[in-house]
Write a sequence for this structure.
């Protein structure tokens, strides 16, 4: 092709493009005039102009400095919502153009809304490099660019687009933009909400590397995330590192670590954090006191808990309902209902509202002391205040009734539970079954547990153990062993109580070979015999008249750091006495008293009977 032809084609294309551009500018000017002259919220633009719109015209209109930013926004929204008139939706360029116009007039909320819509719109491709390129073309002010990228970073975080957000962060770092710590905080919070604690920690480390301002709030948030992952050691090291950099922890930071160490039952580390708080001059807040009271209550350190409670009062820190509930729960566990009720009255006088946990603690206390009549007014008070009686409270009451042998009351309560939609679970069945066993209604207990299985409620370790115990007491060892195998097959591992029930059954029937074999099986599975195991074996050997074997088993106990109890001594003294071995029986009696155990009538009867035994 000759140069003349090439020139002619180029001239034609250029003329065509020039005409097209000129035409676009004319349409843009007409739309601009309509927008500038528009006084109402509705837009009066000729449909013919709208039908000729393209992305270039849209950009010319939105970027026109003579058009107010508010009018640009109205035009943009018009294009978004009137797809029938103008099927061409605003593209990425249009979104960025209107955002920059709104930035100029500091309408940041609307900027963020439009940016968010662009990010979540799957039909609108917004790759970050293209955003950077467009922003470079239309924005020259570094301050606006910085604000835009900061907003984009937050929008990506809000929409959990972590990779894209990290890309913005790295771009800002590499191009010298100031990173706002508050935006990083948003990013960290979203990581935490999504349980992405490893990513949270890595990003925080990146913040430190990039010299982003670290505050106590972001530090505490990351420490909390690490503690939730049980990486308490790493959390502690992070705090110590940042303290050396001049960042001062607050009460919430220390409380987070205290809570983590309390959950690990690490009293040494709890004391270390308390010492660090004191050294830093950080006062305890109500959450600190609550954590400490809960901690001491769990360890049954009543005096320590009381000291913390009194210190709280001396410091003028008002105890909230959680603190009172912790103290009430502690006293109820110790069966000190007088103090528990006094604290309950005190919190009511101070205008605090007891919650379900507060009432639950008191109900647990009265049930534990066997005062079932006192539970009724507490329940009525809960109902009058509109506090729901939860499953835990119902189970506590059931257990209280069953331990007192009040099975009919327990049945009645279960009926109430079902009426209010609380279907009995395995714990309810276990409580009632154990109550029936307590009053020797073993057949009813068996029927109850089998009906539970028929209803599709899977038995747990306690249910299987109860059935094994019943069969063992009946001497039905075939069924007892069958239950033991089924239990293991269903993934419920037998514990000491399970094995002890079966061993005791064998021993009382004189089946010592089976009892000894079961003990070996128990030990092979990593379960160590306890005082109940040894007591059953001692008793069994005495029943079959093998007193020397019983003594051998008894002598094993000190070597295993197991102290015999009253039943162990009584069984062996009775066995020796029946054999007329009075000297050995009396020697054991003296040993028993030296151990601080109180002999009962059976011991004295056996000792008297030893003088009439067969052997001198």
């Amino acid at each position: 092709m000759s140069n003349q032809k090439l020139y002619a084609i180029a001239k034609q294309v250029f003329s065509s493009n020039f005409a097209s551009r000129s035409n676009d500018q004319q349409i843009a000017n007409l739309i601009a005039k309509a927008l500038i002259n528009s006084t109402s919220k509705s837009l009066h633009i000729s449909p013919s102009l709208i039908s000729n719109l393209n992305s270039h015209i849209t950009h010319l209109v939105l970027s026109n400095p003579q058009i107010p930013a508010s009018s640009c926004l109205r035009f943009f929204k018009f294009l978004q919502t009137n797809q029938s008139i103008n099927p061409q939706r605003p593209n990425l360029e249009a979104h960025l153009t209107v955002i920059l116009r709104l930035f100029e007039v500091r309408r940041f909320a609307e900027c963020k809304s439009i940016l968010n819509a662009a990010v979540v719109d799957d039909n609108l491709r917004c790759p970050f490099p293209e955003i950077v390129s467009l922003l470079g073309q239309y924005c020259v002010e570094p301050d606006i660019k910085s604000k835009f990228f900061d907003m984009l970073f937050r929008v990506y975080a809000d929409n959990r687009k972590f990779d894209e957000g990290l890309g913005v962060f790295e771009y800002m770092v590499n191009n010298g933009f100031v990173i706002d710590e508050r935006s990083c905080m948003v990013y960290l919070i979203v990581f935490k909400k999504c349980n992405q604690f490893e990513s949270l920690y890595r990003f925080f480390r990146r913040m430190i590397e990039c010299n982003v301002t670290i505050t106590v709030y972001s530090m505490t948030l990351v420490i909390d995330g690490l503690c939730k992952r049980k990486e308490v050691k790493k959390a502690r090291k992070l705090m110590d590192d940042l303290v050396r950099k001049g960042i001062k922890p607050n009460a919430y930071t220390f409380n987070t670590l205290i809570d983590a160490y309390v959950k690990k039952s690490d009293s040494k580390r709890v004391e270390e954090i308390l010492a660090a708080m004191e050294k830093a001059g950080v006062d305890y807040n109500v959450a600190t006191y609550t954590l400490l009271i809960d901690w001491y209550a769990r360890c049954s350190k009543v005096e320590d808990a009381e000291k913390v409670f009194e210190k709280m009062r001396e410091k003028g820190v008002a105890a909230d309902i959680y603190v009172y509930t912790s103290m009430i729960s502690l006293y109820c566990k110790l069966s000190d209902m007088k103090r528990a009720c006094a604290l309950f009255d005190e919190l009511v006088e101070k205008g605090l509202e007891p919650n379900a946990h507060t009432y639950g603690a008191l109900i647990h206390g009265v049930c534990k002391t066997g005062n079932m009549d006192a539970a009724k007014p507490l329940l009525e008070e809960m109902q009058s205040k509109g506090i729901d009686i939860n499953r835990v409270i119902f189970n506590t009451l059931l257990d209280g009734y069953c331990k007192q042998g009040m099975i009919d009351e327990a049945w009645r309560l279960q009926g109430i539970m079902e009426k209010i939609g609380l279907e009995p679970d395995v714990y309810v069945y276990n409580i009632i079954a154990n109550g029936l066993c307590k009053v020797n209604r073993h057949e009813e207990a068996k029927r109850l547990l089998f009906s539970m299985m028929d209803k599709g409620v899977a038995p747990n370790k306690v249910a299987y153990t109860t059935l094994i115990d019943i069969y063992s007491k009946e001497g039905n060892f075939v069924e007892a062993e069958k239950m033991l195998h089924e239990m293991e097959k269903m993934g419920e591992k037998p514990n000491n109580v399970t094995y002890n029930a079966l061993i005791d059954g064998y021993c009382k029937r004189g089946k010592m070979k089976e009892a000894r074999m079961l003990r070996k099986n128990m030990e092979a599975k990593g379960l160590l015999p306890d005082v109940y195991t040894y007591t059953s074996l001692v008793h069994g050997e005495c029943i079959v008249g093998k007193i020397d074997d019983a003594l051998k088993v008894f002598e094993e106990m000190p070597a295993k750091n197991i102290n015999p109890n009253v039943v162990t001594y009584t069984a062996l003294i009775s066995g020796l006495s029946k054999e007329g071995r009075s000297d050995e029986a009396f020697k054991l009696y003296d040993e028993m008293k030296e151990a601080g155990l109180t002999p009962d009538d059976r011991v004295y009867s056996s000792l008297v009977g030893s003088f009439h035994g067969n052997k001198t």
